[in-house]
Amino acid sequence: MPGTVVVGTQWGDEGKGKLTDLLSKEMQMVVRYQGGHNAGHTIVVDGETYILQLIPSGILYDHITPVIGNGVVVHPGVMIREMDKLEAKGIDCSRLRVSGNAHLVMPYHEEIDALTERRLGKNKLGTTKSGIGPTYADKANRIGLRVQDLLDAKIFRQKLDVVLKEKNNVLAKLFNRLPKQIDEIADLYLDEYLPRLRPLISDTVNLVHDALDEGQNVLFEGAQATYLDLDHGTYPFVTSSNPVAGGACVGAGIGPRDIDRVVGIAKGYVTRVGSGPFPTELLGEEADQLIEWAEEYGAVTGRRRRVGWFDAVMMRHAVRLNSLTELAVGKIDKLDQFATIKVCVAYEIDGRRVDRLPYHQSELHRAVPIYEELPGWQCDLSGAFEPHHLPPEAHGFLDLLKQQCGVPIKMVAVGKARDQFVYLGD
């Protein structure tokens, strides 16, 4: 079966949107399988910048059917605003399909998310306050509202009434907030949102399987990344779903044998947003330089990202977790100005050399990176389009990453634009 998964291998912001957009040329369908509008995929086409939060990156190609799978949590208002922005730029969104089994982000989810973060104070998780976590929590507690509930106003109101009794109790007693009104929410979702969503709501599981059965190329796109995975990330500083490649099976309704290619995307360095361990984190002037050179600010939140050197220990574990068949490395052009570039090849923990990611988080917090240092190339890579355009120092850097990670590096991004990739082959 011609199924391909694109997965982030670090803490997100690796360039999944750009890679998905690039691979979409060969696809007929692009399926988003988890996450919500708390992540932004940035794509630059002919000088025009598109920031996609919910809508799959394949929307920019006329031949693609973009699908929002059952594993995604959907904020209708955000989705509609995103559609409006795209349509204003001439992008047809009528091809978009949304799973009836996807869960809805509700106003009380956003409010509880923001209030909880504020209540946690210095122990906050660093969420985007978008309501994503509370929506997934309701899904697990079996009290969530799904997209298909919008199609039956009576059922929608009944379910909302039950949930609001609990949520208003929490808002009042824990946060001293006024109760949410059922009519206000129901009118917003049924009268304002539903007319726009109704033509898009589909049985996406059968839609995807029909495409696979017909031999169509289907790309499965995750949000966030491996180390923000609820089970395999740096818990509790994680998202509330499973971005790893296996999450595509649950979030899109496919089986493992429907996937024959898993493409990991990594930066030539590492970034993360919010709290949590970060063994190779840079601080001070060196961090400030990289953040400014690489414009490391969140596409959705605008928050300054934490930055650090490439961590091959984490990458080797990500290769295993995702069964990567290949790796794409992004933003190596952002390292152009460094005279020396470092790659973490192991950790020192309590005097021991450790080559595998420690399972115990206290050890990860104590991990001191062991680096291999390489000479930088100190020239502009943005004009490179063929492997021979890359200087020997850049090839040396990529060869070390390939050796350390154990999978072929087939593509390297050297700029923001859609076509600024160098294909390295097999």
Helices and strands in order:
Blueprint: E1 3-8, H1 16-23, E2 29-32, E3 41-45, E4 48-52, E5 65-68, E6 73-74, H2 76-88, E7 97-99, E8 103-104, H3 107-120, H4 132-140, H5 153-175, H6 182-197, E9 201-202, H7 204-213, E10 218-221, H8 247-252, E11 261-267, E12 269-272, H9 284-294, E13 306-311, H10 312-322, E14 326-330, E15 340-349, E16 352-354, H11 361-366, E17 368-375, H12 392-405, E18 409-413, E19 421-423
Parallel strand pairs: 1-10, 1-11, 2-5, 2-10, 5-7, 6-8, 7-9, 11-14, 13-15, 14-18
Antiparallel strand pairs: 3-4, 12-13, 15-16, 15-17, 18-19
Helix pairs in contact: 3-4
Radius of gyration: 22 Å
Could you tell me the CATH topology label of the largest domain.
Adenylosuccinate Synthetase, Chain A, domain 1
Backbone shape: globular
Helix content: 25-40%
Q: What is the CATH class name of the largest domain?
A: Alpha Beta
Give the distance, in angstroms, between the N- and C-terminal Cα atoms.
Answer: 21 Å
Major sheet summary line: 10 strands, mixed
Notes on the protein architecture:
- This protein has 426 residues and is of the alpha/beta class.
- The chain folds into 3 domains: 3-98 and 201-263, Adenylosuccinate Synthetase, subunit A, domain 1 (Adenylosuccinate Synthetase, Chain A, domain 1); 103-197, Orthogonal Bundle (Adenylosuccinate Synthetase, subunit A, domain 2); 266-423, Adenylosuccinate Synthetase, subunit A, domain 3 (Adenylosuccinate Synthetase, Chain A, domain 3).
- It contains 12 helices and 19 strands.
- The strands form 4 sheets. It has a 10-stranded mixed sheet, sandwiched between helices. Strands 12, 13, 15, 16 and 17 form a 5-stranded mixed sheet that branches. The protein has a two-stranded antiparallel sheet with strand order 3-4.
- A hairpin with a 7-residue loop joins strand 18 and strand 19.
- It is globular and about 65 Å long.
- The model has no long low-confidence stretch (mean pLDDT 92).
- It catalyses: IMP + L-aspartate + GTP = N(6)-(1,2-dicarboxyethyl)-AMP + GDP + phosphate + 2 H(+).
- Its cofactor is Mg(2+).
- Pathway: Purine metabolism; AMP biosynthesis via de novo pathway; AMP from IMP: step 1/2.
- The active site is at residues 13, 41, 139.
- It is an enzyme of class 6 (ligase).
